[in-house]
Amino acid sequence: MRRWAWMLGGLIVWFVHFMGVYGIASLADVVSRADDPLWRMIGLAFSGACLLAALAIAGGAARGLRRAGDPSARFGDQLALLGGGVAALAIVWQALPTVIGY
Amino acid sequence: MKSETGFDPALYDRFPTQGERPPGELKELERIWCRPKGWQWITAINNNYIGVYYVGAAMLFFVLAGILAVLMRTQLAMPLNGFLPQETYNQFFTVHGTTMMFLFAVPAVEALGVLLLPQMLGARDLPFPRLSAYAFWAYLIGGLFFFSSIFFGLAPNGGWFMYPPLTSTAWSPGINADFWLLGIGFIEISAIAGAIEIIVGVLRTRAPGMTLDKLPIFAWAMLIFAGMIIIAFPSIILSTLLLELERAFGWPFFDALKGGDPLLWQHLFWFFGHPEVYIIFLPAAGAMSTIIPAMARAPLVGHRLVVLAMLATGFISFGVWAHHMFTTGMPTISTSFFSAASMAVSVPAGIQVFAWIATIAAGRMRFSTPGLFAVGGLTIFVMGGLTGVMVAMVPFDWQAHDSYFIVAHLHYVLIGGMVFPMFAAIYYWLPMSSARPLSERLGKWVFWLMFAGMHLTFLPMHLTGLMGMPRRVYTYLPDRGWEIPNLISTLGSFLFAVAVLLWIIDMVRNFRPFGERDAGNVHDGPGLEWIPTGLYSLRSIPVIKSLYPLWDDPSLSRDVAAGRYFLPRSATGERETIVTSTLNAEPQYLQRMPMPSAWHVWAAIFTAGFFMLLTVKAWWPAVISGVLAVYCIIQWCWFLDAPQPDETADIGAGVTVPTYASGPSSHGWWAMVITLVVGGMVAALMGFSYVFLWSRNPEAWLPSPGLASMAAVVAANAVAAGLAWGACRVLRMDRPRSGAISTLMMLLAAGLVVGAWGVDLRAWLESGLRPSVSAQGATVYALLSWHGFFAAVAALMGLYAVLRWLAGHAVAARPSTWDLIAVFLVYSAGQGAFVALLPRLFPGG
């Protein structure tokens, strides 16, 4: 299970991120306004944390790839690297409405 | 290679074995995996039969829903046409959409998986063949029942997404909507059963050595598809359940006057509905990624990127549901997030499209019928994808919403992303199951007519939509400029229908399944499915060393057929397959597989009967049918954990593995855990519904019962979980009274789960909250009802444990049944605690 979690780590972070930003905006809408500046900053901080997590996974996978491993392990590291990279890009993309307005 | 399970990979070097196999081995396999005779065709469970039945039924529903489409297009050919009355038209578009999405698209790709995966993975069959057969019969009976409603004017008429309040009793009296709610809810159970089979099959029954990097791309697609079903389909099960509760008992989940909100339906429906599109697309994409390299005679370019893209599609599909709700007045920042996510979908889809184009460019593409359908599907899908990016932009979506532009977009995506790949798959893989391939000449006619018909039908709809024609209108006024595009669309649909008719003729002329031989590898495909097979699948199960085994090892097919790999004979004298580890596919144990019996068919009939009779409000017959279904399922389960004659078996070349496994390494444990994930998703989404409805009207929320009842419920559930876990430990001690003590513990655990539920229910009843008065009451009692269902099953399992003990089956050597009951009880206890905690601690006060 750990190996699966590692391979899919970046994508899991991506999932947590988009669910998180939807949840934060919805919560803000109940408590004050969905685009309340304070809540937007909270959303941005959350996006930043997710971005760091995605990059950490991608970095870890890149280090794993440099070590000689069997093809199966390499495949897992490649998936983790690609997943982390895609997640990092997607997180930045989806955080843009918070950063530059909408 | 580092071992995952302790298996020594050096043992693979013993294969292929040398010399001739002893005579009689093949005859023995043929005897064990024999052909059904007479009525046995109904009780057959072998994937070679169920897979063909399944694909056949799905295509039947495709044709039926297609006929409705042609009739609708005839009605719309001219303005103010009187071909179909308004109400009939409403029923037709609802049944057309519902049948295409629920009875054709998902079952068709699931069917393809059931048919192809065992051979593709090198398994004798999928691990739960009776579950596949049950899923098929439930689907067929439920589907025919649903579709037949149209002949009695009882078909649903609220559109395939059945939005309330249009579908509430105020606006949809009668039982039409109930046909949809109960029928579709039931059919989704069948889809989930199939998904469990596919997940466990792909993860646990791969040929030895088939590590994840060598897993066929179609199997990857099916694995992701099935995982998505497990996460997404609980949402439609829950939403149909809630709407039926509102219609039948007046529980106001969607009634704004009593604190409900129709938007809750939209959230729940589209949390299922949008992933559904990718659920349909991914297996078709997997088929494309298999067919294009075979037809181009070149490995798939960017194989790993394509795997990543499919996984990414699976994940992001759960983050875009609200793009169907841009016009509902959500906060602008929320729509911006969903808009961004929706645009991001095009990245993984684009990776796959470019990989296919690059593969075509890298190889020498053969434009035979499967190749034409693959390339045609790619073209259509790209066009649909581009309009998808357009409607992901909120301002554009506001303009195009509910217009024919959306009808054009969704048909481009679904026909390009699923229908054309499905036809490519039929033309490509049919020689595997039929003595004759389909006709190339007719196939090309089918393709070109379908391709032209598709564009003629749907391309003009972009214009009619942009000119303002709304979807789902049964007629329109003249002089709006809609006449010509509508007439072209209708002519196109006739062309499409002619193509389907030609395909049916081709099938009747050439499809010869279940024979002694098949047409063979006419496309020079590289996968294991092209090795000559019998009803036992492959003669022997090879060690996999390549992603394209037949291309990279020309002697593989011959060696497999000569029995030079694993399981060249039946090791136990029964049906069996090798269960392997999830990552590296190392042999772990030999699974003894069930023989055909009628119990799963009766179980499907009575389960379908339960839902059908509920639809027509025949309460007592429904209860009787439900009890009979439970009885049949218990009969079916009773022989699953049977005594083993030998503890180990030689699976070839002196490699021995156990013939039994329990706990997390067993396939049954995996199936139970996945089933409970479905239950957990329903509970979690109910929790979401509770919080969502609170957020609509917080001041109307009443105080919850005291914390004393909560503490009692949580404590009882904690003790139940401990007892269930302990019961398995006690059984494994293998002492003289282990069986009796562990049975008692299991019974107590089940009793505590039921008792805790009773305490919780009583506390809420005493608080004065009632389900039909407010949304709070409705959601709280929905949570209690859902958990009540689990408590009832827990009680049944407790009694089942007692019966097993009385029959002498509570023994340390076979703890699998105990493990599964314990897993269920531990989950149920956790769910009971969740149901007690959430409504009491949130919102608090």
Query: What is the number of helical segments of chain B per DSSP (H or I, 4+ residues)?
Result: 25
Element-level helix/strand string of chain B:
HHHHHHHHHHHHHHHHHHEEHHEEHHHHH
Mean pLDDT across the residues of chain A is 91
- Beta content of chain A: under 5%
Number of domains of chain A: 1
Note the total helix count of chain A. 4
CATH topology of the largest domain in chain B: Cytochrome C Oxidase, Chain A
Overall number of strands of chain B: 4
- Count of spatially separate domains of chain B: 2
Silhouette of chain A: elongated
Question: Over all CA atoms, what is the radius of gyration of chain A?
Answer: 16 Å
Query: In total, how many beta strands of chain A?
Result: 0
Distance between the termini of chain B: 58 Å
Largest sheet of chain A: none
Q: Give the SSE string of chain A.
A: HHHH
Major sheet of chain B: size, sense and barrel closure?
Answer: 2 strands, antiparallel
The first-to-last residue Cα distance of chain A is 40 Å
The CATH C-level class name of the largest domain in chain B? Mainly Alpha
Q: Overall 3D geometry of chain B?
A: globular
List keywords for this structure.
heterodimer; A: mainly alpha; 87% helix; 0% strand; B: 845 residues; mainly alpha; Cytochrome C Oxidase, Chain A; Four Helix Bundle (Hemerythrin (Met), subunit A); 2 domains; 25 helices; 2% strand; globular
Structure, explained:
The complex is a heterodimer of chains A (102) and B (845). Chain A has 102 residues and is an all-alpha fold. In chain A, 87% of the residues lie in helices and 0% in strands. Chain B is globular and about 80 Å long. By secondary structure, chain B is mainly α. Chain B folds into two domains: 47-510, Cytochrome C Oxidase, Chain A; 686-841, Up-down Bundle (Four Helix Bundle (Hemerythrin (Met), subunit A)), CATH 1.20.120. Helix content of chain B is 65%, strand content 2%. Chain A binds chain B through residues 3-4, 8, 11-12, 14-15, 18-19, 21-22, 25-26, 29-30, 33-35, 40, 70-76, 78-79, 82-83, 86, 90, 93-94, 96-98, 102, and chain B through 1-2, 211-213, 304-305, 307-308, 311-312, 315-316, 318-319, 322, 331-334, 336-341, 343-344, 347-348, 582-584, 695, 698.
